[in-house]
Design a protein that fits this description.
This protein is mainly α. The chain folds into two domains: 1-69, no CATH class; 72-110. 62% of the residues lie in helices and 9% in strands. Strands 1-2 form a two-stranded parallel ribbon. The longest helix has 36 residues, at 74-109.
């Protein structure tokens, strides 16, 4: 691809991205497909019946566990509780304002 790119003035990186959409077999690092922080930045879809061979797949179970795990501590839980309390206060305030507006509108209609 490097040679083709040089001969045809085409970037090998963009050429490979274009070709991957048409490939039947792809050797791919599993991180690009499984890690939610990375996969959303890969702007292509695989053809139906494409075979994907994962490179470095011996680490795949650990990466999946890490990608879908959450670490919590008391500080995070306290912060979440504080956020929920603020949200609840805002919702209650909005409900009261909406009720006042509806009552005023009802009185105006009468």
């Amino acid at each position: 691809m490097k040679q083709y790119g040089q001969e045809n003035i085409y970037c090998p990186y963009f050429l490979s991205k274009k070709l991957i959409e048409k490939a039947n077999i792809i050797v791919y690092n599993y991180l690009y497909m499984l890690d939610p922080n990375i996969k959303d930045n890969i702007p292509f879809e695989l053809k139906q019946n494409t075979v994907v061979i994962f490179d470095e797949a011996h680490n795949i179970d650990n990466i999946c566990l890490e990608a879908f795990s959450v670490n919590l501590n008391q500080r995070i839980l306290d912060g979440a509780q504080g956020n929920l309390e603020q949200l609840s206060e805002k919702v209650n305030l909005m409900q009261a304002e909406t009720l006042d507006k509806l009552e005023n509108e009802y009185k105006n209609l009468l």
